[in-house]
Design brief:
The chain has helices at residues 2-35, 67-77, 100-108, 118-140, 182-193, 211-214, 226-230, 234-244, 254-266, 271-285, 295-300, 307-315, 317-322, 332-336, 352-362, 383-386, 392-408, 415-418, and strands at 54-56, 164-167, 172-175, 196-198, 201-202, 246-251, 345-348. By secondary structure, the chain is α/β, with parallel strands linked by helices. It has a domain at 256-326 and 381-418. The protein has a four-stranded mixed β-sheet with strand order 2-3-6-7, with helices on both faces. Strands 1-4-5 form a three-stranded antiparallel β-sheet. Strand 4 and strand 5 form a beta hairpin. The protein starts with a helix and ends with a helix. This is Carbohydrate sulfotransferase.
């Protein structure tokens, strides 16, 4: 009887621990939802041994979790709950290894963010308010329709949330759009979130981060990774962060973005894009039955995809049936979901320098320098030359394909390209 009583007590104790743990998790979620990040500040723990090469905090590793993630993980894993003696250590920032002369050069070229004109700041705030208002009104306008507009956030598949990068340390969410300064904005997000380190110390200067590490998916914590960390709580936590965090994206004239994508992926030797896209285009639209297997051999033989081939590929109904558009020419509304996510800041590449400075100031991280924009980037004035060989009927079809991006983000309809 005594043994049976002890076994019963043990079962009751285990049951009470489980119930108590579940109650605590619910309490955390309700508290976070009601109080917000202002009282639940999330610091990322990145205490790791010093290495030789840049180190990425591995997904699912205890070291890469925020305080809230650690709390939930330990509460679920341990029958004794969270150890109150455990503290999160903040890794010191590593001074920039880039020589001072580089910064001086940027200052001379006009990238000194140290001075801010009050009138200019007010104008920028009015501009942002107008951009946000335009998005809200268009998303509420039943006469303006485009694919996926009317679905809810819960209807968005997980794989379509891979462009939303989260920084829990500063409460920031960035939706990156390829060919819109996304490499440098990803660098900034890495610095803010301290998700990448060199010799065990987080990068402090975006310019110090090697390009090959910037586009490595393991360098960023994106919404589509939430399921692995939070399980069934993932959508709820996404909504909390969307409500509490500052959300931003940068956009660009859709036609100019297409030209930029074509220039970088098909005019330069790129083996991946040659095999995946150029080879099918050459066979389908240039009547080449046999093409070289490498891009270097194709270029030597004078075989190159033309801009006309690229436009035909975009307009071809078979393209979308095989697979969604590549992110470099996929519509912004399909990557960033502006009618399901209420963005706090909409920047434009055409005013990148001013918008970047304003955003960093709003985030209270204007001690960071946004890397200088490229002086040879594709200009809007080039549109007419690039589309000169494209039939007007194709241009009109292409506009319909990207019309939502033009309208949502305030780009004028390119009438001069759409008339006979």
């Amino acid at each position: 009887m005594a043994l049976l009583a002890r076994m019963t007590k043990a079962r009751l104790f285990r049951l009470s621990v489980v119930v108590g743990s579940l109650f605590m998790i619910l309490l955390i979620i309700v508290y976070w939802d009601n109080v917000g990040t202002a009282h639940f500040y999330l610091h990322t723990t990145l205490s790791r041994p010093r290495g030789v090469l840049p180190t990425v905090a591995k997904e699912g590793s205890r070291g890469s979790f925020s305080d809230a993630d650690n709390f939930m993980e330990e509460l679920l894993d341990s029958p004794h709950g969270l150890d109150p003696a455990r503290k999160t250590e903040q890794t010191p920032l590593r001074p920039s290894s880039r020589p001072l002369a580089r910064h001086l050069e940027e200052n001379i070229r006009g990238y000194d963010w140290s001075t801010r004109d009050t009138a200019d700041t007010l104008d920028r705030e009015k501009l942002q308010a107008e951009r946000r208002r335009t998005l809200r009104e268009l998303c509420a306008d039943y006469n303006f329709t485009f694919p996926t507009k009317d679905r809810s956030f819960d209807d968005i598949p997980n794989y379509e949330l891979n462009h939303l990068i989260v920084d829990d340390r500063h409460g920031v969410i960035y939706c990156y759009v390829p060919k819109v300064a996304c490499t440098n904005w990803k660098r900034v997000m890495i610095v803010l979130s301290e998700s990448l380190m060199e010799q065990g110390v987080p990068y402090a200067d975006p310019l110090d981060i090697p390009r090959e590490h910037v586009h490595n998916t393991s360098s960023h914590f994106t919404f589509n990774k939430f399921w692995r960390r939070y399980g069934k709580f993932s959508r709820h936590l996404m909504k909390i962060k969307l409500k509490k965090y500052t959300k931003f994206l940068f956009v660009r004239d859709p036609f100019v973005r297409l030209i930029s994508a074509f220039r970088s992926k098909f005019e330069l030797e790129n083996d991946e894009f040659y095999r995946r896209f150029a080879v099918p285009m050459l066979k389908l639209y240039s009547n080449h039955t046999s093409v070289p297997t490498s891009v270097s051999a194709a270029f030597e033989a004078g075989l190159r995809v033309t801009f006309s081939d690229f436009i035909r590929y975009l307009l071809d109904p078979r393209t979308e049936k095989l697979a969604p558009f590549n992110e470099h020419w996929r519509q912004v509304y399909r990557m960033c979901h502006p009618c399901q996510i209420e963005y706090d800041f909409v920047g434009k590449l055409e005013s990148l320098d001013e918008d970047a400075a304003h955003l960093l100031q709003l985030l209270k991280v204007d001690h960071l320098r946004f890397p200088p924009s490229y002086r040879n980037r594709t200009a809007s004035s080039w549109e007419e030359d690039w589309f000169a060989s494209i039939p007007v009927a194709w241009r009109r079809q292409l506009y319909k394909l990207y019309e939502a991006d033009f309208v949502l983000f305030g780009y004028p309809k390119p009438e001069h390209l759409l008339k006979n």
